[in-house]
Amino acid sequence: MTHDSRLTTYSPPRDGFITHIGRRSLETFRAVADVPTWSPLLVGQMRRLGVDSVPIALFIAVFTGIVLSLLSSYIFTGAVPLYFVGALVGKTVMMELGPVLTGMALAGRVGASIAAELGTMKVTEQVDALETLAYDRNAYLVVPRVLAATLMFPVVTAFAMAVGVTSGWITAVNLLDLSTPEFFKGLRMFYQFKDIWFGLVKSASFGAAVALMGCLQGLDSKSGAQGVGQSTTRAVVLGCEAILVLDAFWALVLL
Amino acid sequence: MIELDGLTKSFGAQRVLDGLSLDVPDGRNTVVIGYSGSGKSVTLKCIVGLIEPDGGRVLVDGGVVGEMSREELAELRGRIGYVFQFAALFDSMTVAENIALGLARRGHDRSTIARRIEESLAVVELPGTGDRYPAELSGGMRKRVGIARAIALKPRYILYDEPTSGLDPVTSAVMDQLMVRTRDLGVTGLVVTHDMRSAFRVGDRIAMLYEGRIRQVGTRAEIQASDDPVVRQFIEGRPGQMAAAAPRRAPG
User: Fold this and answer.
1) B50 contact A CB<8A
2) CB distance B187 to B155 below 8 Å
3) What number is the average pLDDT over the span B127-141?
4) Maximum CA pair distance of chain A?
């Protein structure tokens, strides 16, 4: 009987970092089969990790749209027709800044929240208690959070995309010498459906990575408030790094 | 019956358990005494598979814990209740939800769960507290809820980790009564503690864990009459050779 095939056993990190992450990810993947445990918790996590994150994502999207609009106007003036502002705002918000900035914001909010919660549960033996009640810690704690983030990051990102483009349009109409038809002419000119799904696929992978880092760091917390604090910090840093790595990965694979 | 056979466990360079062997007979309370950090909690966690020993075997009803499949380990945990040192209640859940969680896992219907919650809270003399959150309870009440959560599952065994630590003498006596009452209901108890008053009140058999192995095991009377200097020093609480007797500190 190998260690990994056991239901749950206390297993402090003793492998290399990548091996440890890989092993724990595999354990999480196996726990997906325990549907009766995680399914009742999924909707609550989707609300908590997704719906409650909408305000911060929209706040960022509004200002991203404004800045992009002004910046592209500044770059294009005298060289490129101004209706290209619509193209740049649309492409950039949908393909890059919408998913990445939303992911970064949620890495802070969601990743930190998950790591702090699970870390506190770990150091107060609540995770052990869960296991003595015959629950699989991965099925109960990790799977619903990772699935919820994977499903909800694209939804939040979709709202952020819409709001980012809208704020760019309003900025262009009110602060630049650009009409609504001109803005949308530029927006449509280079638009492809791939722009949207590319951004949404990326954001789903960001959600999975951020939630997984939060869960793994939380469950690896050392004793005490300092240990939980360190785990929380690591979760946010690793979540942000994972987003940048995945961003490059998807650009290489899908573009 | 729980059998511990030559358990060894190290954390880094520290050898916490060093060939611990102990039988926990059915229907009685066995108390393991020992210094703080001597590996008592580690021993309990080895029994339910929360910690994997480096060597030796844990047998519960003849089954070797380290060789169990996921399903077998889950089934084993259904037979063992665990009362944590600091209760380890789920702080985002009410008392009733804490107790219901294990029952729901075992597939009980709502009416059975509600009945078991009432029954177990009545046993620990906390009726009507089901809607309260752990943060609203005192330390002693939280520990009693921990016992209620364990006995609601009608386990064959209950493992108690320092059940009276940090409690006032009266609340400690209440906890002791609960452990005796639970034994009288037919549940086998394994209690780890360094509270000698509690050990003598609760224990049918008492074992002293020292330097990673059992130093002496016997009935209450045998331990009280022990002429082993280490045991005597511990039960009498004399400082004396404390440095020599100092435990190798274990996590948990």
Assistant:
1) yes
2) yes
3) 93
4) 72
